[in-house]
Structures are given as structure tokens and as C-alpha cells.
UniProtKB/TrEMBL annotation:
Short name of any one Pfam family annotated for the protein: adh_short
Lineage of producing organism: Bacteria, Bacillati, Actinomycetota, Thermoleophilia, Solirubrobacterales
The family this protein is said to belong to: Belongs to the short-chain dehydrogenases/reductases (SDR) family.
Protein name: SDR family NAD(P)-dependent oxidoreductase
Annotated InterPro entries: NAD(P)-bd_dom_sf (IPR036291), SDR_fam (IPR002347), SDR_member_12 (IPR052992)
Amino acid sequence: MIDTLLDRTIAPGYSRLGLALRKRRPGWPADPPRMDGQVVMVTGAASGLGLAAAQGFASLGATVLAVARNEERARDAEQAISGDVRGVACDVSSVAALRELAETVERLDVLVNNAGVMPGERSRSVDGVELTFATHVLGPFVLVQALAPVLEASAPARVINVTSGGMYTQALRAADLLSEQDEYNPKTFYARSKRAEVVLTEQLATRLAGTGVVVHSMHPGWADTPGIRDAMPGFRKVVGPILRNDAEGADTIVWLGAAPEPLQSTGKLWMDRAVRPTHYRFGADEDSVDTREELWRELERLAGAVV
Ligand SMILES: NC(=O)c1ccc[n+]([C@@H]2O[C@H](COP(=O)([O-])OP(=O)(O)OC[C@H]3O[C@@H](n4cnc5c(N)ncnc54)[C@H](OP(=O)(O)O)[C@@H]3O)[C@@H](O)[C@H]2O)c1
């Protein structure tokens, strides 16, 4: 009851208070075990939640492939994380760069699609795709498919897509999935792409069912990362004192990557080590089966357009 109330009232549950209260409740899942010998890839690992998650995995003994947008940021990540870590440069909004990245990986137990953006103006990837969609949806679609053989060979394996609670406000935009016909609004486009990431998670989970690879999404609540500081200074000014720190925001990413419980299901949305609904009663409506299938076809088309 308390947990559900925290979730539905949003501000308390998404803040550091929500995590602190949940941790004290009976039934809070045990901390994850060691991961010696396992390989984890985290995108957006040079700052914020990605850096904290990468450090969390490295502290559990995993080998971490810390993916950052260029060589300089990859070096930043490598220097900031203590443990067995290798910085890897890759623009995760680029289809070709992701395919190249996948070619270099021989073993992978956990893939965390964490890199995120909220540009102030409409921006495009090198492939010409609107940047929030390219980074949060097309990128994970391409990377998971390219790495699927390696993940399957390393099974049991996990994919974790980092979405946002903002997605509760948005449905997929049927017949205009890339929002090309809509005026750009950073928060709306960001939230829409994060909704699509949750739908994609369910679709990937269905397609990978039975292979030993589970696919989950999670949202971190509100954490005081460089991303929040740059993209939402007004929001940060108001809720600054109750924001989670980076490690608190990354807690469920690391738990999903290492704990035994997440291997028992697939295609779920998690927050604070518990499964959450993908829709709230007062949020966006469920997307139709047709729109969801349209999303998959659009992703195939966009990925196929880059050879
Ligand atoms: N913080 C929160 O409260 C919150 C809430 C909900 C969801 N999230 C999600 O959590 C994830 C992490 O965000 P954060 O808050 O930690 O923000 P952040 O500090 O800005 O981290 C995002 C990271 O992604 C990297 N990145 C962006 N585009 C990339 C690209 N094309 N190729 C490679 N790397 C790229 C950034 O690299 P550069 O630094 O080099 O640009 C940065 O290191 C995002 O998916 C975000 O949407 C965060």
C-alpha cells in the first residue's frame, strides 16, 4: 500500500525520500551478488546515472565496457570508474556506429541502454532521425539486435533500457511516430521517445523469449545528474533538495543487471527494485496493437535505410 501510494503520488516516490522509505520496508530485495567474470556494457557511461551504474557493476567485480560519445568522453569514463573498465567511443544515435561497436564484443552478460538527451531545439542524428528518438529508441533497437547472438551465447543475459517517468504523460503518436508533423517541444518529444522505449522493451522481450535473454525497462525517479542540471534547471531549482544522488538513481539499474529476481520475468517496467505499471489511470492511454506494430516496422525501416 505505502509503496503504491509513493508511486502514484509521484513527487514523494520519485525523490530520495521514496527510495529511503522503500528500503526500510520489509521485503526490500537483497542487494545484488558479485559479478566476477561477467561483462557489462553501459551506454552514456561518462556522467550521471550511466557513470554511477558502471561504477556499481565494476564494484561487483564485472568487466565494464563504458560507452561514451567520443574518445575523449570514453577516457573520462575510464578514469572516473575504478575496477576492470574499458572506455569505448560510440555515438549511440548512429546506426552504423552501433553496428561497428557490436562487432567488437565477444561476450556480454548485461547491456544497459542508458544514454539520453533532451535537446533544446529539434536536432537530428547523423542518419537524419530526430535525436531523442534516435538515441532512446532506434539506438537500443539496433544495438540489441546486433548484439543478440553474443547475448544469447552468454545467456542468462539481460538488457536494461533506462526510460523516464515522464513517459506516463505520452502515448505513441500514431501515424507520426517520429513526430515530424508536430512542433518541437523538448519535454514532450523526450517523454514520447521514452514511452516508445518501454513499448520497444516489451517487443524485444517477446522476440527474445526462450533465448535466455531477458529485456526490462526501468525508470530512476529523479536524480541530480548533469543531464537534469543542463536540461531542466527550473525543475532542479524547485525539487533540488529532494533529488536522488547518482548512485541512488542507478540503484535499480545495477540490481536489475545482477540480482537473480529479474531473470524470472521479461518485458517489465521497474522502479526501486519493483515492477511498476506502464500506464497510470490519469496518464496517457494504452497504445493500440496497430500503433505498436507500426513502431516496430518504422524501426526496421530506419535501421534498414543505413547499409
Ligand atoms: N536524472 C534523472 O532524474 C532521470 C530521470 C528519468 C530518466 N533519466 C534517464 O537516465 C539516463 C541517464 O541520464 P542522466 O540523468 O544521467 O543524464 P546525463 O548525465 O546527461 O547522462 C547522459 C549520458 O548519455 C550520453 N549520451 C547522450 N547522447 C549520446 C550519444 N549519442 N552517444 C553516446 N553517449 C551519449 C551523454 O554524453 P555527454 O555527456 O558526452 O553528452 C551522457 O554521458 C537517460 O536515459 C535519461 O533520460 C534520468
